[in-house]
Specification:
The complex is a heterodimer of chains A (361) and B (223). Chain A is an alpha+beta fold and 361 residues long. In chain A, 41% of the residues lie in helices and 22% in strands. The longest helix of chain A is centred in the middle third of the chain and has 50 residues, at 102-151. In chain B, 50% of the residues lie in helices and 11% in strands. The chains are: A alpha+beta (361), B alpha/beta (223).
Chain lengths: 361, 223
Amino acid sequence: MIGQLIELISSICPFPHVVENVKLDGLTHLQPKKCIDCHDNSCLEPSQVENTILQCPKEFFYFRYKIQSRIFVINGLFIRGISKKLPRKTKKTGLNQINKGAIEEWIDKSDQMIKTLEDAVHESVKATLGMLHDVKTSVSIIFRNAESLISEEDGNTLDEKINNAPSNKKTLYKSVSLLEERLKMMTLVSNPESATHGDKKPLPIYKVFDKILRIFQNLANKKHINLKLFGTSYSSPWLYSSFATIPLVLIDNAIKYSQSYQDIIVNINDITGGVSVSVESFSLCIDQNDIHKIFQKNHRGKNANKVAIEGSGLGLYLADIVAYANGFSINHSQKGNACLLGGLQYTRNIFSFFIKGQGGR
Amino acid sequence: MSIFNIFKKSYRIEELPFNRSSSELKKKTKIVVIDDEEDSFPYKLLQDDGYTIEWWDKVDSQKLHRLESGDFDIIILDILGVADKELSDTDGIGVLKRIKSVNKNQIIVAFSGQSYDLSKTEFWKLADDALSKPVTFIQCKEILDSLIRKHININSYWKAVKDLLVVNKASPATIRKIEKEIYKSLEGNSSFDERQFTSNFLFGIQNTASIITLIQAIFRIWS
């Protein structure tokens, strides 16, 4: 949102200005050549005072201020009645000459515009999030009833009761578990900081993946895909509960983009220094131009769009946020030669990561 | 070291062996869930599973006093709709802040469906742990078991008692005497006489209600 706001203000700012060290023309006044060629750039020094009109050694006036924590510098101006030595061309053309108070007037107008936009976005977000809250309340009721149904089954623990339950109750319980994980992902989209909510706890990685694989079993069966879990791991590294988003996204994507009658293989192994995890599937090739974008928000690859599989383009973006919050990163590689099937290229895609630590903080 | 010190018995609570099974601790740990939506937290299933847990839909001044006094080992607190404006302008956040200001060692779990709301970040940061709605029974159980393993032991409670004594200007000598008294009572499996204890050791010390409640908790989980 901040980036978009800065772009908007920059596009309508009448004065020459600097954003992220890039010197830009204004709508009515251009960047002076002296500013473009300037190496001194004293107006861009972080230590410079903000919200005050100052003069640089080249006798231009500049004004530094913040738009939602980002620095915006209006530069390269002469102020009528104050600037003493005006270059001949400037005197003649009036270019880059402004009246006293023009900067403040512009700041006021742009502030008003930003506030109006923010209020509009806020209202829209508030309405959406209000509905999300209502959805969460309804889902809580579904959970209580699903748990109540399961608790009627034989068994001492909930796991035993789920195992002893008839398939329709098992499916119901797994569906609500999936719903729970999806709602958490929605929360991450609007507040990525929620990836670090709560205390880090020892999470048995193998068990977490096992649980997610079981949740997706029905979906995988419909596509005749085998979900396989291999490896040896007893590790429980200290992680935030948001970690569960990662197996959810990787396995969901693997099923979504996999060819039928294939295997999705999850390997989890304790190795020196930590746990190594990989999720491998025979799925759509990721175009070379898309590879560096797959973790970007709202990005959907060229090939993914061709098969018209529904998707928000948020899964890997969220998985990346959670991985970062937990102190590691997710890597992608493609193995072997691509095959052409139904006009689309498929290959072995591998998403992998390494978590340091074997159980201590 | 003086020769007499070798024979001097140490009355340090941390040296008492404390091995209680998870099912014992589960039963002895007093938990309260505060949420205006009863279905949000599976407290009934957890009760069936052996946890000592109750549900409040709201906090009034009387209940707040209980929370501030350390009546519960773990508080699970919602952010909205749990306190009247007279009690707290900022609803759940206000309640959380008040409890923490009186007893920073009180374990509070932030419980809300509003983890998407950036403006509520303070609520999550002030709490000891977090549960984001909707929650399943298994999630709640995992968090509670983790908190019980980490915090429900006589050392943690004694630390909380010591912190309160220090804040309320008890002298180091008084603190040592109190620790010795508690140690001997626990070792001898004798019960805690609140009145005698207060008159012997807490004369002149403020906030005795919270201190007594925490000491009662030590005896509760020890027994």
